[in-house]
Amino acid sequence: MGQIIQYIQSYRHSDLTPGAAGNMFWALVYIMLVFVGLSVAVIAMNWLERKILAHMQVRLGPMRVGPHGLLQPIADAIKLLLKEDIMPAEADALIFWVAPFVVVLAAFTVFVVVPFGPTHAITDMNIGILFMLGVSSLSVLGVVMAGWASNSHYPLIGALRSSAQMVSYEVAMGMAVVSAILMTSLHGLGPYGVSAASSGTGTLSMIGIVQAQNEQHVWFLFKFFPLGFIAFGIFAIAMVAETNRAPFDLPEAESELTAGFHTEYSGLRWSLFMLGEYAAMIAVSSIAVTLWLGGWYRPFANSLTGDTWDLVFSLFPGLIFLGLAAIAFVGVRRMPKHPYFRVQTIGLAGFGAVLGLIGLILFVPPVRDRIQDIFWFVAKVAGFMYLYIWYRATFPRYRFDQLMKVGWKVLLPIGIGVLILTAILGVVL
Amino acid sequence: MQQAVQPGMQPVATTFFFYLLSGFTLLSGVFVITRKNPVHSALALIFGLLAQAGLYLMLYAPFVAGVQIILYAGGIMVLFLFVIMLVNLERSQREEQFNGQWVVGLLAAIALGGLFVTVYVKGKALFPYRIAQPVENTNTQQIGLMLYGQYMFAFEIASLLLLVAIIGAVVMAKKRI
To answer: Domain count of chain B?
Structure first.
């Protein structure tokens, strides 16, 4: 027993990720935390997407279940769990059954290397970014399996579209990623600061990439302006196509294919597809944040330095939660005064109180210091999630030939150009 | 063997995982050739390739493992499936799967088996007994330095060959460009 406690405590002063330190216990704890956090994020995203989309289209969105529809995702989850799980008679049973799990597994596995902080990752791999791209590209297999195993026309067309789309956008995406990885190795004497510690070879490790940005005192988004910016733009477009989201949601285009590859799915297995889709969205967003937006570092980490600025930026997490609490209390004030709404009003007030309490806890210095990096990482990812919703409300769906044209004839040549220019600048500067 | 490995990163149950992954590889290989449905074969092949990636990881070659996943399991096999789905499965399922050429098959099997037995028996003499240096922390960097330093010429020749193949495929597929 004492040995176990010692084993658990031995990690406390480590400056490595639990995976790199080889501590099984904390690795498991981190895995559980990431899994739970991700599931909560998907639930929250479900509600936010419907709500934000509704407000963008001047509707109210879900309003019935709980105050402002806050309990809607839970109601939906219960509905999906209780719904009858139908399998088409002519379907290929085994593959039909396995496909949603492949999608979910691929989407969740990539979070093994996502760095929420210098030590807040499950593990740090030497091939981090390669692992993320590789495993997330496996999710297309699940889509193809689902479409084929359903043994019906719409799913098959959806699956074929999906595989063609994902394979083509992966190429452009790869070019953008490579140009960012190239930047980790460059330690030129240009206006971007020198890193004497850099060995000359770059790194594929997610943590290493973020640290390289800190060493060079610049987010790769702004490095070799506008090259980093263009590479980031290519990635930002390609990642929407990779996750089959609007405006590139041709594999599940309702107007043409009913629901595309998951037409024949229902109940729990359909919800697994949704879970996988949202988890994949978060995963690619965190790749973008890691490669171009400085990962867990706060904005202006190198220009606004000093204790005062550190303090100012460390107050952000708590202030955001207090702001959310304030919004909740405004909602309480504006609730109809009819007795019918009493329970909802009390519930919303309780929710606001919980948010406020979390905000207050985040002001406590030890918590504040430890939550910093996680907060900034999550905040940046959240920005991308908002963009996803925004795209969906803004852009009409592309036609398939337009989609292919954008991928192969626009993004790919620009990507190769950016890659070559980055390499040249790295040598010259 | 573990000099270069970080103190915390001792491999766990190496033998067990080796046999597990090899078992998966062999099993999926058998499935690839015995399944009548080509889609099932392709999926079994993907599983085998993933198990192989695991074996590369055990050899302290994470970069090769990553490339295996991203290129074979993620890229090439998706194209395989893509093509298989476009062909007429109904007909191929009714066709005879094995062509009954026992003599040739037996000869090939004996030759391969003989090779395996030779390697197993005389392996220590044939290949010098040297366990690869596990430079896991800088594996990718080492590969990069080698490819773009020592083996630059071979690397560029290989990429030129691939380029020729791509152009050839485009020319053959499209007479008028």
So the answer is: 2
